[in-house]
Amino acid sequence: MLKKIKISSLPSEVLFIWKKLLANGYQAYLVGGCVRDILLHRKPKDWDLTTDAKPEEILKIFGESAFYENRFGTVGIKTNSDDETLKVIEVTTFRIESDYFDFRHPQEVVFASKLEDDLKRRDFTINALALDFNGKIIDLFEGLKDLKNRLIRAVGNPEERFYEDALRMMRAIRLACELNFEIEEKTLEAIRKNSELINYIAYERIRDEFNRIIMSKQAIKGLELLRETGILKEILPELQQTYGVSQNKHHKYDIYYHSLKSLEYAVKKNYPLHLRLAVLFHDIGKVLTKKGEGPEATFYNHEIVGAKITKKILERFRYPNSLIKKVTHLVRHHMFYLEIDKVTPAAVRRFIRRVGEENLEDLFKLRHADRIGSGVPKAEPYRLRYLRYLIEKVKIQPITPKMLAINGYDILNLGVPQGPKIGYLLKILLEEVINDPEKNKKEYLIERVKELKDLSEEELKKLAEEVEETIEKIEKAKEEEIRKKYYV
Ligand code: ATP
Ligand code: MG
Predict the structure, then answer these.
(1) Which tens digit of pLDDT belongs to each residue from 332-368?
(2) Which residue ranges have their beta carbon within 6 Å of ligand 1?
(3) The CATH number of domain 7-149, selected from 3.30.460.10, 3.10.180.10, 3.40.50.1000, 2.60.120.280
């Protein structure tokens, strides 16, 4: 493990602010997650400096570009960087946090004059490392050793630290997922013992950590840690209740592990958040709808009950409404089933309308994860592929004279009498436009009508019939193309 860091290799925006604090006679250190990430060769998500300068003094040094970040006196310094992680650098005064009587945020902030005090109040040893301007790492709690052994260990007495702020329990699990570290045994034991304290934490904060857990490569490990420590039971009892509930002859796993296996596929395929949530919760209605036991158990309407439960969970987690709607909709429709040899184009159209064209791809992706999570080998079987083919087929736009920039009345106005000639003329123009869509302009088409209108009805009819054949050929070719695309 590195013991020194080359300061000149750090972003110029950070160095600029750092130097300025030092030049004004203050102490300043890079601290927390960014030091940890540099040592792990990961790109830091944000950059934090800690200093003995008080917020007012920081504001004075940086003038216009500085602003209060939050009610705890952290000052943000705006930079001109295009890099999202460097747009605002956080500068925080050394502090001791006190009076955590409600297991969450401190009631007041007490400033400190020593770096040591500030490092002591940080959550984990790997997050309590500081870097001075000579590139030396200050490591008061053997954070480097834990970094090397890939361990998340609370600074000081873990129970006391979780009493101060219960969100730290979820931060431990989230960091274990993102960094692929283990949680040190005493720290883990303290989470098990105090998991109920998570109920004191606002769901917005829980949700942010939860999102990062399920968006990480180690999402499964994260959910298992949540369950084993007892946190899952507190924040997501609906998922906890699927644990150990067996399914039927179509399923290898219980509902809980089926959900996790499905999520594992979603992680592997890098699904976005809304889809991962839909995958995780798609069968959550099965607990309440289960009838019977053993291989013949049924779960009728579990998608309807599941959509309701999902909505309740997502509302509790204060997700944005647009996401709640999307996820709930996917859970509601995940049981779609079409008998492909009997299904009519009208039924396919109804299905598209019910699900919404914009959700079809997501729904298929949910189905892939669901299938893989059931232990079947192929994500997309023939049936699903055939459905895609049917969907694309019903979406083919028919070729009709309605597509033309002129209509029957325009031709009537050019002196062609009411009768079959008008229909024939439209057909003939249609072929020209298919061959060259540029020609679909009113002036041009009117000119062509003037040229053609004096041909006899017989001649026009013959031309129109040839066009009919061409159109049929084009439509057949389109269908064939789709058929090939889906190998059906
Ligand atoms: P990331 O930036 O990847 O989210 P991080 O560990 O840097 O992870 P931040 O929220 O950026 O997390 O916090 C920066 C630092 O502040 C942490 O590394 C840690 O030292 C400290 N910290 C953050 N939250 C807490 C907390 N709840 N209790 C104690 N210290 C904390
Ligand atoms: Mg950070």
Answers:
(1) 999 998 887 788 999 999 999 999 999 999 999 999 9
(2) 32-33, 45-46, 48, 122-123, 127-128, 165, 167-168, 171
(3) 3.30.460.10
